[in-house]
TrEMBL record, chain A:
<dbReference type="GO" id="GO:0005634">
    <property type="term" value="C:nucleus"/>
</dbReference>
<dbReference type="Pfam" id="PF13445">
    <property type="entry name" value="zf-RING_UBOX"/>
</dbReference>
<keyword id="KW-0479">Metal-binding</keyword>
<protein>
    <recommendedName>
        <fullName>GID complex catalytic subunit 2</fullName>
    </recommendedName>
</protein>
<dbReference type="GO" id="GO:0034657">
    <property type="term" value="C:GID complex"/>
</dbReference>
<keyword id="KW-0863">Zinc-finger</keyword>
<dbReference type="GO" id="GO:0043161">
    <property type="term" value="P:proteasome-mediated ubiquitin-dependent protein catabolic process"/>
</dbReference>
<dbReference type="Pfam" id="PF10607">
    <property type="entry name" value="CTLH"/>
</dbReference>
<dbReference type="InterPro" id="IPR027370">
    <property type="entry name" value="Znf-RING_euk"/>
</dbReference>
UniProtKB/TrEMBL annotation, chain B:
<dbReference type="InterPro" id="IPR013144">
    <property type="entry name" value="CRA_dom"/>
</dbReference>
<dbReference type="GO" id="GO:0043161">
    <property type="term" value="P:proteasome-mediated ubiquitin-dependent protein catabolic process"/>
</dbReference>
<dbReference type="GO" id="GO:0005634">
    <property type="term" value="C:nucleus"/>
</dbReference>
<dbReference type="Pfam" id="PF10607">
    <property type="entry name" value="CTLH"/>
</dbReference>
<keyword id="KW-0862">Zinc</keyword>
<feature type="domain" description="RING-Gid-type">
    <location>
        <begin position="329"/>
        <end position="391"/>
    </location>
</feature>
<keyword id="KW-0963">Cytoplasm</keyword>
<keyword id="KW-0479">Metal-binding</keyword>
<comment type="function">
    <text>Involved in the proteasome-dependent degradation of fructose-1,6-bisphosphatase.</text>
</comment>
Length: 411, 406
């Protein structure tokens, strides 16, 4: 990369110093002055023109020289690029499984744009898709395969207006929360979805209300110079709202009330961390986004972003694999599984993984993990192979059991 | 721990696989630009020098009047001035390309300063990359308006090639409308580079013009067609003689013929073939990959993330939307689920489960701490009881059983 940068710097310098146009101008000047001389004295024509030959030739040649220099600069830069990307070709394009699923990709992109709050881009994108679809239908020359026609007509390929509305309201709430520190829309939303949130064991509503309490306590002014009025507002809010939380969050409410006893010297109290937490707004915003998306059955971060990033991380390994396989002329033995392990950062692991310790295969629906009475888990196929229909010893401990005693577990 | 450290290591050089076209494309443009400069300079040089010599000889032998000499000089001056103008505009172009290249190099350079994949800066960088990939995908699919809007809002205009793709798209659209003019013009502009191309785009375009003339079944048009074939097609005689014989044979068939290969010749699908061929040639010339980069990144990413649980008939205990302590897996999320269905899943050689796993009477496995945490937060569960966050069943705490996963 350093080399590329250096060569590019050099190329730029050369371009700046390039005399090409000046040389052209010099040629023009030569011709012009010769013309003036001849116009003034036509008798001089033959001499002037004869004298002109060599200088014009020289200045035209110097244009070529400066071009040559630029050319060598360009070539050096090409070489540095080649060197940087040597051994790193883009993966071969023989099989692009995704190109058949264009509409699914477009749907994912539209959802991603909505998630990121790019509503106007999303709208343009959707309308351009619709336009193209209409165009394709008009130009369907031969009555193309009915399959294709239905997939084009499939309305499910774009996010429904409801989803769009949901994301719009999510962005409204988030912008209120982040920019204006206005928690009320968020509290209202969590109140409306109280049952669903509670079933998830989510304490979003309480977190929001607690933050509202803290915010009221601090008031608009700088923390530290709290007017008693703000304290009163917070207490009034607590009296009005907190009783609903007491059964579940007794301890937390008690903490907040206890903290009030230290007012106005909260900084030095044991409760100061609750009241002076700089990241609390970002945390709450993130918490809210996660809960909101989860209720829609969606992941909190854009899946497209995670997948594309994971792809970039995985590509070097996959490319290496491709070259090795080509060199050794082997093929994948397991069709549904990648042949190499790709180490992604821990935050990219979302599911528990069960690899059978006996067969070293990953558990699937057809070959689920089974727990023996001793508590050890192996895959069903391994279990069958070990037991052969009779009692057998667990491969990990001395206990013996029967095939029918093993139970399927869900990770 | 060691595994964790290697898995977040960032190797910037090998991480740039997806970013080759970012530098390659402007460089190809710069080279093309340079060749144009070379060509115009050469052309003017070949005119001015002989002309000057001739004028000198003529005035020596007194065959030219002074006025004629002056006129010859004027012609030379105006041609040189034309050259200067052309060079100036090409230099402007060059400057624009190189400033863009510079910004791109700087963008890639920032990756070298990011210590690890877990860094916040990597997150930002990767988001910019995703925006770039999205714009690339949109441009290739012909959604230019969305692409330019997204590029503008995300401020990545210097990192994407709006102009190149918009021009390409214009030609594609003209071909889809059944016009060859713009495509032929493009061929003219890139004549030198096309000689190396293995696709015979220009021949196919000329052949299409011929087909359209024959299609009319009008006698005078057919004569035009023959002339057209003599002028343009025969120059390709050698590699395509079979094609030319077929083209000649076409003259006796009408467009509703069922005889091959004439049926294919007359088919409207040939226009789609032409536009695909154009795109292929165009991308090859500018060293652009033939498939969208987003597809490359996604197909690798989907597989790397996918587990057998993502398309399982049973809801996974470790990641589902019913529980607050886990986030929904991106492959399970509706956006990508269908897309990933046909992809292979990632290979793992070791089990990976939450710490201190326990099993409930219904067979569900959870980390003990997480399960206790959830049950505490769910209001409706009495103490001493736990709630399965996936199924909603309630069990006694004593019903949890330790499970050993190796």
């Amino acid at each position: 990369m350093d080399l590329v940068q250096k060569e590019h710097d050099r190329l730029l310098k050369r371009l700046k110093a390039s005399q090409g146009i000046n040389n052209v101008q010099a040629t023009i000047d030569l011709l012009q002055s010769a013309r003036d001389t001849i116009a003034a004295d036509p008798n001089q024509a033959a001499v002037t023109l004869a004298k002109l030959q060599n200088p014009v030739k020289a200045s035209l040649n110097s244009i070529n020289d400066s071009l040559k220099e630029t050319h060598s600069g360009l070539n050096k830069y090409t070489k540095s690029l080649d060197k940087l990307f040597k051994d790193r070709p883009l993966p071969s394009t023989e099989h692009d499984a995704l190109s058949e699923q264009e509409h699914l990709i477009n749907r994912a992109i539209a959802m991603h744009l909505l998630r990121e709050g790019q509503f106007s881009v999303a709208a343009t994108f959707l309308s351009e898709i619709a336009e193209k679809k209409a165009f394709m239908q008009n130009h369907q020359s031969s009555p193309a395969s009915p399959e294709q026609a239905t997939s084009l007509l499939d309305l499910d390929e774009v996010p429904s207006p409801e989803i769009r509305k949901e994301f719009a309201s999510m962005y409204y709430i988030l912008s209120q929360l982040k920019e204006k520190k206005n928690l009320l829309p968020a509290i209202e939303w969590s109140c409306e979805n109280r049952e669903a949130l509670e079933a998830r064991g989510s304490n979003l509503e309480f977190e929001l209300c607690r933050l509202q309490f803290v915010w009221l306590y601090h008031g608009e002014s700088e923390p530290g110079q709290n007017a008693p009025g703000n304290w009163r507002a917070a207490m009034a809010y607590a009296k009005r709202e907190f009783h609903a939380f007491i059964p579940r969050y007794l301890r937390e409410v008690q903490q907040l009330m206890g903290a009030m006893a230290f007012c106005p010297n909260l900084q030095d109290s044991p409760y100061s961390s609750i009241f002076n937490n700089s990241t609390v707004w970002d945390d709450v915003a993130q918490f809210f986004t996660r809960e909101f998306c989860s209720l829609l059955g969606l992941s909190a971060d854009s899946p497209l972003y995670i997948a594309a990033t994971a792809g970039a991380i995985a590509l070097p390994t996959l490319l290496k694999l491709q070259t090795i396989m080509k060199a050794k002329r082997t093929e994948w033995t397991s069709e549904n599984e990648l042949p190499v392990e790709i180490s992604l950062p821990p935050s990219y692991l979302f599911h528990s993984i069960f690899v059978c310790p006996v067969s070293k295969e990953q558990a699937t629906d057809a070959n689920p993990p089974m727990m023996m009475p001793c508590g050890h888990v192996i895959a069903e196929e391994s279990l069958k192979r070990l037991s052969k229909g009779s009692r057998f010893k667990c491969p990990y401990c001395p206990s013996e059991s029967h095939m029918k005693d093993a139970r399927k577990v869900f990770l | 721990m060691a595994a964790e450290l290697t898995s977040i290591k960032l190797n910037p050089e090998s991480h740039l696989i997806l970013d080759q076209p970012l530098l390659r494309l402007p460089h190809e443009l710069a080279r093309r630009n340079f060749k144009t400069v070379q060509r115009v300079v050469e052309r003017e040089k070949e005119y001015v020098l002989p002309a000057l010599k001739e004028a000198a000889n003529a005035s020596l032998s007194n065959t030219h009047t002074p006025d004629q000499t002056l006129a010859a000089l004027d012609a030379m001056i105006s041609r040189m001035q034309g050259l200067k103008r052309k060079m100036q505009s090409l230099q402007e172009e060059e400057k624009k390309i190189q400033t863009q290249s510079r910004k791109r190099i700087q963008h890639l350079e920032t990756l070298h300063k990011i210590p690890s994949l877990a860094d916040v800066k990597y997150d930002q960088w990767s988001r910019v990359r995703l925006d770039r990939l999205l714009v690339d995908h949109m441009l290739r699919s012909g959604y230019s308006e969305s692409a330019s809007q997204l590029a503008k809002e995300r401020d990545v205009e210097d990192l994407v090639d709006l102009e190149v793709f918009t021009q390409c798209q214009r030609v594609v659209e003209s071909l889809q409308r059944g016009e060859t003019k713009e495509a032929l013009q493009w061929c003219g502009e890139n004549k030198a580079a096309l000689k190396k191309s293995q696709h015979n785009l220009e021949f196919e375009l000329r052949l299409q013009q011929y087909i359209e003339m024959v299609r009319t079944q009008d006698q005078s048009k057919k004569i035009d067609a023959i002339n057209h074939a003599r002028k343009y097609l025969v120059s390709y005689q050698d590699p395509d003689s079979k094609e030319i014989q077929r083209a000649a044979g076409m003259l006796v068939f009408a467009q509703d013929t069922r005889a091959e290969p004439y049926k294919t010749f007359f088919s409207q699908d040939r226009w789609r073939f032409l536009s695909d061929l154009f795109v292929k040639t165009h991308h090859e010339l500018l060293s652009l990959p033939s498939q969208p980069l987003l597809h490359i990144a996604l197909s690798a990413g989907l597989s790397a993330l996918k587990t057998p649980l993502c398309h399982s008939a049973y809801t996974s205990s470790s990641s589902n939307s019913q529980s607050t302590t886990t986030s929904v897996c991106p492959i399970c999320s509706t956006e990508l689920n269908e897309l990933a269905r046909k992809m292979p899943y990632a290979h793992h050689s070791k089990s990976y489960v939450e710490g201190d796993p326990i099993v409930l009477p219904n067979g569900r496995v959870y980390g003990k701490a997480r399960l206790m945490d959830i049950s505490k937060n769910v209001g409706s569960v009495e103490s001493g009881k736990i709630k399965d966050p996936t199924t909603g069943e309630v069990f006694g705490e004593d019903e949890m059983k330790k499970v050993y996963i190796m």
